[in-house]
Amino acid sequence: MTLETPATPHDRIDSAEQATQLERTWHSPGGLLGWFTHVNQRMIGKRFIITAFIFFLLAGILGILIRLQLAGPEQQFIGPELYNQFFTMHGTVMMFFFAIPVMEGFAIYFVPLMVGTRDMAFPRLNAFGYYVYLIGGIVLFGSLLLSMAPNAGWFNYVPLSSKLYSPGYGVDVWTTMITFIEVSALTAAVELIVTTLRMRAPGMSLNRMPLFVWAALVMSFMIVFAMPAVIVSSTLLILDRLVDTQFFIVEGGGEPLLWQHLFWYFGHPEVYIILVPALGMISTIIITFTRRPIYGYTALVLSVVAIGFVSFGLWVHHMFTTGLPQLGMSFFTAASVTIAIPSGVQIFCWIASLWGARIRFATPMLWVLGFFAIFVIGGLTGVMVASIPFDTQVHDTFFLVAHFHYVLIGGAVFPLIGATYYWWPKITGRMMSETAGKWSFWLAFIGFNVTFFPMHQLGLEGMPRRIYTYVEEMGWGDLNLLATIGSLVLATGFGVTLINAIWSVLRGRRAEPNPWGAPTLEWAADSPPASYNFRHIPVVESRWPLWDWEQAGERAVVTGLRHDRREVVLTSVLDAKPVGVQVLPAPTIWPFVSAVAASMGFIGIIFHPIFFVIAFFLVAFTLVAWFWPRRPWRDD
Amino acid sequence: MPLSKYVRSTGLAGAAAPLLSACEGPQSALDPAGSAAALIARLWWPTLFVAALVTLLVLTLLAVAVLRARRKQAALPLNARQSRNLMIAGGILLPLAATIPFALSSFSIGRVIEAPVPDDAMTVEVIGKQWWWEVHYLDETGERIATTANEIHVPVGEPVRFLLKSDNVIHSFWVPNLKGKTDMMPGRTNVTAMTADEPGVYRGQCAEYCGTQHALMAFLLVAEAPEAFDAWLEGQRRSAMEPETGAQAQGRDVFLDAGCAGCHTIRGTPADGDLGPDLTHLAGRRTLAGATVPNRIGHLGGWITDPQHVKPGSRMPPSDLTPEELKTLLDYLESLE
Ligand code: HEM
Ligand SMILES: [Cu+2]
């Protein structure tokens, strides 16, 4: 392996036959059966993204149904049983099956491209994570169709979720599906961490890493540290429900508050797991559409890291009304308001970057500007609820519903849609319509505020969340009607983007490799990228390699990787010096079979413990097949 | 509008009203009638003001940056020092300036609100049920002296201590006009104390999702002059009125025979069920079914015949009475002042 500095085009370095051979090596098999063998990171990333958006659509429909039921007092449209399933499913699916997986999906797709490598560190594990997610999601929605969906809320408090108060299979399905998501998120996180730390293009030292990659890295570490808490809590709950342990049962000496601690120790960071990658998307979009280096790279990185750390010290602010000691809780007030500082630093770095820039107001940028308006409000109401006395009034009311939708939709979904417009040409090779994009933005922006702003007032007027109806004399009818109208506008806004996307796939204009003039490596690949991502692994000399190359008229690349097997360059953690070559495994059906076997076990134990044993042996068998040594000639 | 008779006025109604009557409402945190709620409401307005100011500031900066970018000739970008100053001022000093006073004042408000109440304050034990509230009045020794449900009376101007319990799932006790909420956790007793400073009927509602009918789990809190309160409590301590007419006596027999007594208690009769609310003084209560419908004879009849229609999922089964039986039963229940 050597570093060379040839000018593009590639043909100077290797022949057309070699390129064909490279394509053959990295090719994903076709056909229906082939589909289940894919391991390339772009395949898996794309599947995560598409599946997650389908769940967004489904959970969004539930959200609209919820809003229709609440449009007026004492409506009979949806009864309490169904309504409770709807909001539980809406929350669970939005948080676990849409927000986290979609962020993982974007990270899986773009991190390897942005760090200039050809795949991720453990491609088969990646595929396994996806199938587990897919199966989990299908089973969860299946339970809704069978009308046995979970109905204890997305944080599933005990003892309401215990066997006594939630008989039936709903909560079992919930705990089991959460386990699926945990497994899937952990595989993605491990994957992303190793890829980011060891597979960056030569020269991409940590301080040259794109901000989105930093954000994905922080997200992954947060997943690794947060998920175990919910794995523990959901396992204890499964045990309580299936084999009558008493972890959460008061009569047996158990402690319901334990659930809340464990759940929120995970649950609070989880919100930031969703937010942090979105912050990375914003920086990325701002850099490209201001066409200049961002101000405060280091400050931005440090704030994201700080947010990651601090978010683990806030969980008790979800429990201010449980009767814990005041003094202890005050600590969590203090910790919660400190989050304002890293968030503030980010916002003002972005403002400094926008100031005096020649901003290009393409659709992605519009969504980012919308983010500012919404997120600032969501952040401020977040500071408000950090106050214990104030929180005792608005906790579990529609004020909270307003707050977290401002943060989640404003802070995560808006940047996400922006990023979708931004990266769309890279993923599909086609452009989306700018006009439709702008319509979509304005409808969603107005619809969003009309839906959720009035909810602040509803909360202050005493409207609790998770109620399927309210009596007329409460006087909440008008604002609720307004919110429902807003939600229809909001849904139309998102719908326009959906149509825009479908239209673009069918007959959108073809995209060039770098339609927005962006500086990061993913734009050096074709649109859509070839199955090997980069014909030659690039060598990086600054944070803005594509802008450098534009100026220099040439670029440095790595040569000498073999074309006949899946080779990637390994580099050192800090300064990305090349240290070796790794051969990645080829497509295989085993991750899929393994995921099916594991799912059989997880789902089966709801009905009978014997499935645990069966699945244990099945999984062991599939793992043997999965790790069967490769043929020697591929492994030298 | 059945409730409006005895719940505080809802202020203006109509399309423009929501914004005008921002702080009114039968269950509004910003319409305080007790010192705790008043302190919190007082914290709210300056907080809202600062938050609005910060929003305005950030969005104005952003708008200026964006609008200048739209002009023909580019504005000057900030140099490194200006950018750094902007970041420090906006990202560090501004949040500190805004949040430190806020955190400090919420600490001190918290201390005032949670300050211990005098030992001799009246104590009410409230137990969260699915989906109603069981209320016991305790004497100085902690003995239960009176039991009622879904309607709590307190003397105006005196602190009242609430012992909050649950023997099932988690509920949360909340009367926004008086104070913030406190959860009712199975296995422990949470204590909250509050004072109603103005006489009135306030509405409280369960604020922790507790299953099917969480939505219709409310109660009324009646704050009245101490003398009126004493008289009321005296009444609640007594056993139920004896039937005065033949119809009422028949109604009592219906009550005892039709299965009602399996779940309900009427003190002074053999009915001593404990799954549903104590009905000893039912006729004196303003609402039925957790402040869901007003306590009028029509609603009472409808509730007894088909509770699942009024409050689907409720733990009370429908009863199958002849019209005659129902009439005498209602007669009897209406007499339980
Ligand atoms: C179409 C857009 C959306 C609408 C109209 C909507 C509407 C609502 C409403 C009205 C509630 C309150 C239900 C109740 O308390 O009875 C709710 C709850 C919730 N929403 Fe959304 N929402 C939307 C999008 C989202 C998104 C994008 C997320 C997260 C990424 C989200 C996460 C949640 C969560 C976690 C809950 C709480 C569920 C629970 O109480 O267990 N929502 N939503
Ligand atoms: Cu409740």
**Order of helices and strands of chain A, N to C?**
EHHHHHHHHHHHHHHHHHEEEHH
Average pLDDT score of chain B: 89
**What is the structural class of chain B?**
alpha+beta
How much is the average pLDDT of chain A? 92
Spatial strand order of the main sheet of chain A:
1-2
User: From the structure provided, what is the oligomeric state, counting identical versus distinct chains?
Assistant: heterodimer
Instruction: Characterize the main sheet of chain B.
Output: 5 strands, mixed
* Class by alpha and beta content of chain A: mainly alpha
Greatest chain-chain interface? A-B, 87 and 104 residues
* Computed Rg of chain B: 26 Å
What series of H and E elements makes up the topology of chain B? HHHEEEEEEEEEEHHEEHHH
Q: C-alpha Rg of chain A, in Å?
A: 25 Å
- The amount of helix of chain A comes to 55-70%
Pfam families (chain A): COX1 (PF00115)
Keywords (chain A): Cell membrane, Copper, Electron transport, Heme, Iron, Membrane, Metal-binding, Respiratory chain, Translocase, Transmembrane, Transmembrane helix, Transport
Organism (chain A): Billgrantia sulfidoxydans
Transmembrane segments (chain A): 48-70, 90-115, 127-149, 169-190, 211-239, 271-290, 297-317, 329-354, 366-390, 402-424, 436-459, 479-503, 602-628
Describe the protein in words:
- The complex is a heterodimer of chains A (636) and B (337).
- In chain A, strand 3 and strand 4 form a beta hairpin.
- Chain A contains 19 helices and four strands.
- Chain A is mainly α.
- Mean pLDDT of chain A is 92; it is low at 1-8.
- In chain A, helix 4 packs across helix 8 (256-290), helix 5 (123-145) packs parallel to helix 18 (590-604) and helix 12 packs parallel to helix 15.
- Chain A has helices at residues 16-26, 31-35, 41-70, 80-114, 123-145, 170-198, 211-243, 256-290, 297-310, 326-338, 340-354, 363-385, 388-394, 398-428, 434-460, 477-507, 545-552, 590-604, 610-626; strands at 2-4, 557-559, 567-571, 578-583.
- Chain A is 63% helix and 3% strand.
- The radius of gyration of chain A is 25 Å and the shape is globular.
- By secondary structure, chain B is α+β, with helices and mostly antiparallel strands.
- In chain B, 36% of the residues lie in helices and 20% in strands.
- Chain B is built from eight helices and twelve strands.
- In chain B, helix 5 (246-257) packs across helix 8 (323-334) and helix 6 crosses helix 8 (323-334).
- The radius of gyration of chain B is 26 Å and the shape is elongated.
- The model of chain B is unreliable at 1-22 (pLDDT under 50).
- The chains are: A mainly alpha (636), B alpha+beta (337).
- The interface between A and B is large, with 87 and 104 residues.
- Copper (II) ion (CU) binds at residues 128, 131, 171, 206, 208, 210, 214, 217 of chain B.
- Copper (II) ion is lined by residues 128, 131, 171, 206, 208, 210, 214, 217 of chain B.
